[in-house]
Amino acid sequence: MTTNEVAGPSQLLAARLQIPPMSYSHASGSWIFTSDGRRFLDACSGIVNVNIGHAHPTVVEALSDQAGICTYASAGSFAPTHMEQLAAATARAVHRPQDRVMFTPTGTHATESAIALARLAQRARGETGRHRVLTASLGYHGNSAFVLALSGHRSRRPHEDDSFGLAPAFDPPYPGHHLGCRFPVCRADCAHAVRDAIVAAGPDSVAAVLMETVNGTTGGGYCPPPGYLRALREICDEYGVLLIHDEVLTGLGRTGLPLGSHHAQDAEPDIITLAKGLGAGYLPLAATMIAPELADSIMSSGRWLPLMGTMSATPLQGRVGLAVLSVLDEIGALERDQVRGAQLGKILAEAVRDLPAVTDLRGVGYFYGIELAPGTIGEALRTTRSNGLLLYPFVGFHPDRTGEGLLIAPPLNATDAELEILGDGLRAALARIGDGAPVGAS
Ligand SMILES: Cc1ncc(COP(=O)(O)O)c(C=O)c1O
């Protein structure tokens, strides 16, 4: 028995997809190889995190080198040299060079830190009643009990009794999700839903608004209409509310620019979270970044920083994070002047053209959602896999809990040839849905 095989019933409690898991042997670049010798294109970069591909030599070298030098030196006792360097490099990478950066292991922790920092910053400026955080009715920010209670992930939201009285506060400007929208198509003015939510909550009680800049795994690539993120910024300013952008998925190049908010003008938030593309699947690593004046006010208020846990900042995370950022820089993913990923957009539009199983294609850069006809997701997962593609589903996102689709998010350094393979495999797979042909027959 190899280490990848398990005898008897699984004792592991873990999420499963609608199709059985496979046994892998190894991975390299955009590919994962199975134990029986097949190869699969990792067209979703794991869960939209393996953004520079598998086993990148620069990261592998940093990992193995630092593993032999020192993996842990407790913060406080030893100067966190690599984490200091990583803080500066992360701030530069997203073009906010003066930001202060707090590291934690996961995107969930980054969200928790962002909320804690927002509340502390409000208190530091004398706004002692501001504790509420307003979120959208479609969106995801992590899986702790607190953050899930705030999230607009319909199937993951906890039972009402377990939600601490918390719930999302406003509808986002995505087709079909902004209930009662007074325009035929959502536009910047739809940010009035956020203003209404602030007013309804009582502005003096609101610490922050928290939102994804491009909707991620819940709705699969919905983009806000032009001007929306700027309007959101203006509304927050009007009411003294801090703005947190969740860039856990979108940050560090996934949308074709270093941040999702870089697609908008004058939309700079106060606090940003990053995670998936920072650890890039090599180790757990997330960052919460905050504007320097807010950080300074917190620090001078003499309050403790939140969430500094055992594995918040280690030399190994520092080395690996720096290596990942150097690769992202090398491939141009941290450039702000040109949106990357245009070729993927063209390939996908061509791949899904006139296919009856596809009802929508949305997204930007290297992140897309393909919405599918009702009842086809299981078949779509099987046909895409049988055409050599690994894809991740998103389901139940419409207000009536219907909705199904596939995320497309190849590594940011996938070659043109790999993107072509993705497009060809996708078209061949989705064209077979509903045609009655046995899966695996292509
Ligand atoms: C937008 C967004 N925020 C937060 C999270 C939580 O990150 P993690 O799974 O690392 O806790 C995710 C994870 O998918 C995400 O997509």
Descriptive notes:
This protein has two domains: 24-56 and 337-431, Aspartate Aminotransferase, domain 1, CATH 3.90.1150; 60-330, 3-Layer(aba) Sandwich (Aspartate Aminotransferase, domain 2). It is built from 13 helices and 14 strands. The chain has helices at residues 45-48, 57-69, 81-93, 107-124, 145-150, 192-201, 228-238, 276-279, 292-300, 315-330, 342-352, 377-386, 416-431, and strands spanning 24-28, 31-34, 39-42, 100-104, 132-134, 206-212, 242-246, 271-274, 286-290, 358-364, 367-372, 389-390, 392-395, 404-408. The protein has a six-stranded mixed β-sheet with strand order 4-9-8-7-6-5, with helices on both faces. A four-stranded mixed β-sheet has the order 1-2-3-12. Strands 10-11-14-13 form a four-stranded antiparallel β-sheet. A hairpin with a 2-residue loop joins β1 (24-28) and β2 (31-34). α11 (342-352) runs parallel beside α13. Bound molecules: pyridoxal-5'-phosphate.
Summarize the model shown.
This protein is an alpha/beta fold and 442 residues long. The chain has 13 helices and 14 strands. Helix content is 32%, strand content 15%.
Q: How much is the radius of gyration in Å?
A: 22 Å
Reading the helices and strands in chain order gives: EEEHHHEHEHHEHEEHEHHHEEHEEEH
Distance between the termini: 31 Å
Q: According to CATH, what is the class of the largest domain?
A: Alpha Beta
Q: CATH fold name of the largest domain, please?
A: Aspartate Aminotransferase, domain 2
Summed up, the helix count is 13
Our estimate of the beta-strand percent is 5-15%
